[in-house]
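>> received
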Amino acid sequence: MVKAKEKNLVEVCRKLAKELLQLMGSKANLEVTHDKANEAIVVNLQTDEETGLLIGHHGETLLAIQAALGMMMKQKVGEWVRVIANVGDWREKQESHLKELAREASQRAKETGKPQPIYNLTPAQRRIVHLELALDPEIVSESTGEGEERYLVVSLKKT
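>> returned
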């Protein structure tokens, strides 16, 4: 039963993603799968010419495609379904970069003893940094501020 539901969600998402790309005038190819670990439908966009266009400035277009597909799925199936959109290996590169940024901030905090702020991260990006830093027993990370002013602070754990 669960397999049939997952297969149906993948197929619905594939049709909606094709329709969305067509409306955008994109010629990208699609691969839509179910990711059990993240309980999500993954939409991989494959293109040689439109990669930058589909990613957009700091991934904004890709996030907009992801949000639109999530809302379209809600309308079509009547429930929220987590959708993750990716172009090539952009998400993997982004995650790798964020983990490196976290390690660098951690190292600076250890060397200077001073809290290290990291600005301009989305909630999802802050989560990746928090998870990476949770592995370090000497470091604590916390998000402070509200809305657009929210940022992450990396500091030494108080003993």
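>> The domain at 2-88 is CATH 3.30.300.20 (GMP Synthetase; Chain A, domain 3).
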